[in-house]
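User: Could you go from structure to sequence for me? I need the amino acid at each position, not a summary. Structure tokens:
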């Protein structure tokens, strides 16, 4: 829903504001060149300027008020729609959970209903107290500062190539219209197959992995019938079998054909859409393409290798040590894949190609591939940002303090503080969801303008 609001807003900027802004620019040019008619005391020139200024002011007021009204109406509709969806799906989970004796599902249902109601009440309060309007103004100011930053970066990168500079300014919309780097993202839903055997046949690989005590793979856990722990479960999807058939398959050591995915397509789409929405604060305009790939190495089912091996073997990303040019050409297409779990308590992992520096000055050395992986965890209220977080790392962002920031991590190894003075006011009233900040947006653009191939900066990917 938030995505539709964003699309309308972008449409106003691109289709209404941009043409007028371009007309203003041409008009200013004309006014500058217009000959001064001495017999009119130069009034013709003055008149020309006057018209331009009036159009500018009128355009600014109409577009800003128009965007504010659309945003407010859209926000209210989105709150109501989200509430209805949360109540319907939550109650459904509770009812089905009770009838199937699935206590995790009952709990998830309760969390969805209560969380949905709380989010709706706080959301309406936020609009009523005009805090959404304050946020709108804040976002506008931040975006204008980010545009200035990006203008500077592009001017430096293309200092000796005015044509590329003009193309880059047009492609990013840094001067007019909707600003942002249009990025094509890929999201791969991995799966395991029950009937894949070694070339010489015999017992299926999935059964072997399940029976191998050295591997941390339990097919009933992969399928979501059991979980590693009550608090640590996701929503895997089994296609082609039910619980009884999966059990029979394990007992008979084969004989059935099904697939298990770490998450459904709907779940992955939800994550990409949250990522696209939140990443707008970084000045990135994502469009995600989804695909599916079979995983044939047990180390990529419960991810025990590093992200680089996963990138190369599962996502098909280029290894910089083998092909430096190819690895760089991967950069403009951020790629995420799913896993069932990680060794340990991780919920996501990333690899970024170039050395970066965190907003607090910490060095963040690059790797030899680029790409990220995520697992599913519920509730969405807490874990839906994981993909946005990992793709933040993809552009060199590092961890920060406070639950109100997308780049926060609860991983104890990172040593980050869960709460700062701004965390509660931000999450309860002002923003009501974790965000990226301006400094992070600037750092992402530093990373992009320094490392992306020219083509990716001077043309629009979508
Ligand atoms: Zn992280």
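Assistant: Here is the amino acid at each position, in order:
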């Amino acid at each position: 829903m938030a995505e539709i609001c964003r699309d309308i807003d972008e449409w106003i900027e691109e289709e209404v504001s941009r043409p007028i802004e371009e007309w203003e620019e041409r008009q200013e040019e004309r006014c500058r060149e217009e000959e001064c008619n001495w017999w009119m005391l130069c009034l013709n020139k003055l008149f020309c300027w006057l018209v331009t200024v009036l159009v500018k002011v009128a355009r600014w007021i109409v577009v800003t008020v128009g965007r504010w009204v659309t945003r407010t109406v859209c926000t209210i509709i989105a709150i109501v729609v989200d509430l209805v969806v949360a109540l319907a799906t939550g109650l459904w989970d509770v009812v089905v959970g009770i009838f199937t004796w699935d206590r995790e599902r009952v709990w998830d249902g309760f969390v969805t209903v209560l969380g949905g109601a709380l989010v709706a009440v706080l959301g309406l309060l936020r609009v009523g107290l005009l805090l959404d309007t304050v946020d709108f103004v804040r976002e506008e100011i931040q975006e204008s500062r980010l545009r200035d930053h990006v203008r500077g970066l592009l001017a430096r990168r293309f200092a000796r190539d005015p044509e590329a500079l003009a193309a880059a300014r047009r492609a990013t919309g840094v001067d007019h219209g909707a600003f942002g780097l249009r990025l094509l993202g890929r999201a791969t839903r991995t799966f395991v197959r029950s009937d894949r055997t070694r070339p010489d046949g015999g017992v299926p690989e999935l059964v072997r992995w399940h029976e191998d005590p050295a591997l941390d793979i339990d097919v009933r856990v992969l399928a979501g019938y059991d979980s590693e722990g009550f608090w640590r479960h996701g929503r895997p999807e089994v296609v082609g079998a039910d619980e009884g058939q999966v059990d029979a398959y394990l007992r008979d050591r084969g004989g059935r054909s099904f697939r298990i995915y770490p998450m459904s397509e709907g779940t992955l789409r939800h994550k990409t859409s949250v990522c696209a929405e939140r990443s707008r604060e970084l000045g990135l305009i994502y469009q995600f393409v989804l695909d599916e790939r079979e995983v044939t190495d047990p180390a990529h089912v419960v991810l025990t290798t590093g992200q680089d091996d996963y990138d190369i073997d599962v996502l098909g990303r280029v290894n910089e040590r083998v092909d430096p040019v190819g690895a760089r050409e991967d950069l403009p297409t951020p790629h995420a894949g799913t896993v069932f779990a990680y060794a340990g308590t991780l919920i996501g992992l990333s690899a970024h190609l170039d050395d970066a520096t965190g907003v607090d000055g910490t060095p963040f050395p690059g790797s030899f591939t680029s790409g990220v992986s995520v697992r599913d965890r519920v509730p969405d209220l807490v874990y839906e940002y994981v993909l946005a977080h990992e793709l933040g790392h993809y552009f060199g962002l590092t961890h920060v303090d406070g639950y109100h920031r997308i780049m926060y991590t609860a991983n104890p190894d990172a040593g980050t503080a869960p709460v700062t003075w701004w965390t509660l006011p931000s999450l309860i009233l002002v923003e009501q969801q974790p965000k990226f900040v301006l400094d992070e947006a600037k750092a992402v653009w530093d990373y992009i303008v320094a490392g992306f191939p020219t083509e990716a900066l001077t043309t629009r990917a979508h």
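One structural detail worth keeping in mind: Residues 137-188+264-397+436-458 form a domain with the Collagenase (Catalytic Domain) fold (CATH 3.40.390).
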